[in-house]
Amino acid sequence: MASEELRTDIVTLTSHIIAQQQKSPNHTRGDLSLLLNSIGSACKWISNVVRKAELLKVIGATAVTNVQAETVQKLDVLSNEIFINLIKGTGRAAILVSEENEEAIFINAERGHYVVVFDPLDGSSNIDCGVSIGTIFGIYHVVNETEKPSLKDVLRPGTEMIASGYCMYGSSTMLVLTSEGNPVDGFTLDPNTGEFLLTHSQIKIGKKKIYSINEGNSYAFDGAVKAYLQSVKFPEPVNGKVPAYTARYVGSMVADIHRTLLYGGIFLYPTGKLRILYECFPMSQLMENAGGKSSTGRKRMLDVVPDKLHARSPIFLGNTEEIEKIEDLYKKLD
Ligand code: AHG
Ligand code: MN
Ligand code: MN
Ligand code: MN
């Protein structure tokens, strides 16, 4: 290949994180950069296990039921161990909260001033059939560096989250990241070099009208959600044109949110299955930083204060216009 066809303007996840650190007022610390880099490494390792799962026979269920009363899959366990070990290795985390651990993990690290909340493997029901799955994470700084870390460092509103993101193990492995005051950027794993490369700079939510919901739960939907679904299936003409909606539902939050970010639309999980700390908050911060909105239906999702580690909430995320339709319906029907 002629040299002019090779790209040399390479931005790796690491160089991007360092560039953002240098712009930030706390740039002397570099602790957050170290943590984000270790999350990048964890996602590469998980991606590697996911890609080989069928061949290595790590697909299938364990005999364990987790705190969520779900049957734990072997990949849930492996991903959790990889994530925990790589974060611990940085010495910068004080507390870890995982979907797969009932209790918070307190780490006795001298310089650990961060809380990392995560869903190591999202979309467990899609593992055995090879459909896209992911990892979700969020980071808080401890409330006070001089105090002993405690649950009050964790049970805080999403507005206090300083960084969040997800990695999707799909047709390619993509890491999507945002942090306080920064845009949402996407990196694609280059299997040849093993590097995450910046491929989607400053993602803004798309404009397509796609709605995404598990309608098998319809019996449990309230009036506002039923009215919203009616309005997208039988839309009223706007300026003489009927807006056509498309339905898409993968069943892995990471994949459904990734599509919603890139193409546009709305993701609804109204029955309160999704966990606030490590599913709802990170995805809400990403959605807001990409120009969209996230709501419980009755208030901004990021303003919620979880009362326990694995607390759950109804959630609606997507284009501002669609989320406001839902919020208006709740106001009208409550
Ligand atoms: P997890 O696999 O981490 O337990 O999360 C599953 C979640 C989420 O990925 C998805 O949005 C939702 O469960 C799908 O649930 P249903 O299959 O019940 O619709
Ligand atoms: Mn689970
Ligand atoms: Mn999940
Ligand atoms: Mn999970």
Automatic annotation (TrEMBL):
Domain called Fructose-1-6-bisphosphatase class 1 C-terminal: residue spans: 207-330
Keyword Hydrolase: yes
Coiled coil: none
Origin superkingdom: Eukaryota
GO cellular component: cytosol
UniProt-listed CDD domains: FBPase
Pathway participation: Carbohydrate biosynthesis
Pfam families: FBPase, FBPase_C
Keywords: Carbohydrate metabolism, Hydrolase, Magnesium, Metal-binding
Occurrences of domain Fructose-1-6-bisphosphatase class I N-terminal (ranges): 12-200
UniProt EC number: 3.1.3.11
Gene Ontology biological process terms in this record: fructose 1,6-bisphosphate metabolic process; fructose 6-phosphate metabolic process; fructose metabolic process; gluconeogenesis; sucrose biosynthetic process
Cofactor or coenzyme needed: Mg(2+)
GO molecular function per UniProt: fructose 1,6-bisphosphate 1-phosphatase activity; metal ion binding
SUPFAM superfamilies attached to this UniProt entry: Carbohydrate phosphatase
Reactions mediated catalytically: beta-D-fructose 1,6-bisphosphate + H2O = beta-D-fructose 6-phosphate + phosphate
NCBIfam families in the cross-refs: PRK09293.1-1
UniProt subunit comment: Homotetramer.
Entry similarity comment: Belongs to the FBPase class 1 family.
Protein name per the record: Fructose-1,6-bisphosphatase
Species annotation: Physocladia obscura
